[in-house]
Amino acid sequence: MKETLEIILLTLYVNITASIIAMVIGSLFAILLYKYKFPCKSLVLLVNRTLMALPPVVLGLVMFLAFSRSGPLGFLDLLFTVPILIITQICLLIPIITGHVYNYLESNRNLLYSLKLLGCNKFELVLTSILEMRKGLTFIFFIGFSRAVSEVGAVMIVGGNIAGDTRMMTTAISMYISMGERETAIALGVTLLAITFVVQLFLRRLEKEEIHENL
Amino acid sequence: MYKIKKYIVLVVSTSTLILTACGDESVHTLRISTTTSVQNSGLLDYLIEEFESYNFTSANDEEYKIEIDYIANGSGAAIELGKSGDVDLLIVHSEEAELAFMEDGHGVSREQFMYNFFYITGPDTIVDERELCNNLFYSRGDNSGTHVAEKNMWLDLGCKPTGENYKETGKGMLDTLVIANEQNGYTLTDNATWLKNSSSLQYLQKVANGPENRYSVITVNPEKNSKINEVDAILFYNWLISDETGDFIEAYKINGESLFYKL
After folding, report:
1. What does the pLDDT read at residue B1?
2. Less Cβ around it within 10 Å: N or C end of chain B?
3. Is the ipTM of this complex over 0.90?
4. CA nearest B34: which of B236, B176, B222, B230?
5. pLDDT tens for residues A123-181?
6. How many CA atoms does the CB half-sphere of B256 hold within 13 Å?
7. Shortest CA distance to B65 belongs to which of B111, B19, B94, B28?
8. Which candidate, B218, B198, B213, B227, places its Cα nearest to that of B260?
9. Which of A160, A178, A205 sits opposite B40 (nearest CB)?
10. What pTM did the predictor assign?
11. Chain B residues lying within 8 Å of A6, measured CB to CB
């Protein structure tokens, strides 16, 4: 039971942290892409969209080769530790969040344009647009979190599924399946869904509360 | 906004909880790369629990304990982790690859310390093992120790199933057994995975003993990088190959049968 709790806490810690950091970095990239025109912009967008389909196992392998003790970043000694799990998840999420936020900004061009016409300064513009677009942004955050929490290939390679250390819910599930402990695997799978449900519920409540405040 | 504050508190408290779990000075960490069959049999957890209960004395007279972290892959991938110097010790069963590993200077000491038998499992009994060559056979196909043993088995038999009769799953032992069970095929399995799961593989039976399956322990060459824990790897190595540990290994049983025997 204690072990399961540790796995759940680690899964939450890694994926929530990664989603938040990736949300910040990804949004910044999206804003830069939205705001500035530069040569090869369409190529950058194309690369971004391609990376949205990056297979996690491939990312895991690249991270493994980079962070292996015999690799260029081996001196950091991060392989098979919790930080590398977070870093890998962030790398996986950044293109996805950048793509979604960019797309969302594009479809809200009118709003952003009106805010400018209303004479907002830069700070007000950013604050107001975040407030106005919070629902969409919350949803994008949730897309990122869902992707991270269901990911198994990359965290298996860089984390190593070490008991009490880097064992996450998905890697534990995959291990239990290969061990023939199907009941445990299914129980963990249901727990993972339940956690996602609670996170979703939490985000919904945030939305509702704000609507209430506005009334 | 207070919700967000609550949320931050949750994240911070979770992280402190996880951080306090590690960072004990008197515990050394030993990192092992092993094969899925050793992990899935439960033997490794059984051995580690015993070993982690011992106290050791360091060169400057301080008592410490050794904590073992292990990463389980097929033998091919397990040995690669030793080559890249990401682990301190290997427990594997793929003799040719092990010898090549030693020859290339990746390892310091190697000893075969336990063995068991591969089992041939399938839907119907066979009289002659060469019958396997004319039946549907599922191979691991993942360069694992079991896969290598299977390839050697074909060499010994002088024939091999071909075409539609030979399928590679590219998956672990139990996954391969499950597929063979569903598709009425034969397969080669380590006895541990079989004994643990035979009750749920209702269409398969053990039809013959396959080749012998020898497990080795290898210490990784500490010259690879400064982070390899050579001292504790040697302690574990010596413990593992000792006669008492051999008896301890044989005492590990499933359904009254020992899964591994000492060498």
Report:
1. 47
2. N
3. no
4. B236
5. 888 888 888 888 899 999 999 999 999 999 999 999 999 888 899 999 999 988 877 78
6. 0
7. B28
8. B213
9. A178
10. 0.79
11. 21
